[in-house]
Amino acid sequence: MTQLDIDIVFKRKQFKLDLQMSLAESGITALLGSSGSGKSTALRVIAGLEKPQQGTIQRGQRTWFDAIKKVFLPPQQRRIGMVFQDYALFEHLTVAANVGYGLAKEGRDFHVNYWLEHLHIAEFADRYPAQLSGGQRQRVALARALAPEPDLLLLDEPFSAVDVSLRQQLRYQLKDLVKDVNRPVLIVSHHLEDARYLADNVGIMVEGQLLQFGKTAEVFANPLCYTVAKILGWENFLPIVEIENTTVHGKWGSMTLEEEPSIDSAWLSIRPEHVRIATHGQSSIKASIQEITDMGVYRSVKCTLEDGTLIHMHRPWDEPLPIAGSEVNLYLPLLNMKVLPSYVQNMSQCHKKPNAAVTLPLSQIS
Fold first, then answer.
1. How does pLDDT run along the chain (366 residues), one tens digit per residue?
2. Cα(265)–Cα(135) distance, rounded to whole angstroms?
């Protein structure tokens, strides 16, 4: 299988992008991270809109960039389709003209009509971008990116300009579209739902570094460090003060694990859906219920431990719960508990070794 292999270092004043990853011949890869993490810069470097200082970018046997061999293909020679965050449509051109922009005259009408029909925007062919909704503009941008039949599709926050109700509809359309075009797609987003629903693989970026990369379900279920867990929406973190054989201690209490944790372990973490009120005989931690919020299919319960540490618990909407202000004992199943480090010396290795630990200096943790 032909892969897109990326191994580059891109430096800008006060910013460094250090990226190493491979994309398969088809399917969707998502890059997640907060604003300023380097996601959009990564797309621009891959597209040839920015030139790295070091490394290589290669698709199969074709080299797009090689710093040592002084190879740097411009964007038009990389056969890449890109949808920018603001869609970057030509406001003075009609929808049809936007989709056909840059295509050879021979076969242009066929390709334009095909993508207009395929993305259900044929009725808007003679309209201008200002006359379209956010979702319609997004589909026009997608059609324009796909019309030249690119080898790779790059999407920069493709759903940022649409409302919540339209967002899921556009996800459905994009997922079906990717199956049809059979091309690799790289999407950057800060919305977890985009990656969960769309992506086959996901990478987590922080301050220009790829901290974890792998199958989407595996990454979401097994973050390698505190920082990755926070980006992936994990809410519960119990700080570890002392490790004694298999028992970890904190101001919140103590917990005995199934095996001795590594010396750099700094946090116990568990997702809210796995926390529940202890029954007789289960090991537990004392807590106080602060607030209960009805979320529809479940209720979100905010609790505090004895040291003030917050613990969030998600329980079924019809499960009986004590009222806010009640003292409870919380059961945190060891099967669902993750022991996470705070920092290690070599962050760049974390996405290569599935069992490796990765962390950031405490000053960088937010």
1. 468 899 999 998 889 999 999 988 888 999 999 888 999 999 999 999 999 999 999 998 899 999 999 999 999 899 999 998 888 899 999 999 999 998 999 999 999 999 999 888 999 999 999 999 888 888 899 999 999 989 899 999 888 767 777 787 788 888 888 777 778 899 999 889 889 999 999 999 999 999 999 999 999 999 999 999 999 999 999 999 999 999 999 999 999 999 999 988 999 999 999 999 999 878 899 999 999 999 999 999 999 999 999 999 999 999 999 999 999 999 999 999 999 997 544 444 443 333 333 332 222 222
2. 45
In 3D space, the residue among 82, 97, 224 whose CA is nearest the CA of residue 142 turns out to be 82
Whole-number Å distance between alpha carbons of 64 and 166: 36
Q: Measuring CA to CA, which residue among 295, 302, 306 is closest to residue 249?
A: 306
Range list of H helices, the chain: 39-47, 95-100, 108-118, 134-146, 164-181, 192-198, 216-221, 226-231
Q: Which residue has the tokens 């556009």?
A: 170
Residue 292 burial (CB count, 10 A): 17
What does the alpha-carbon distance between residue 78 and residue 141 come to, in Å, rounded to a whole number? 19
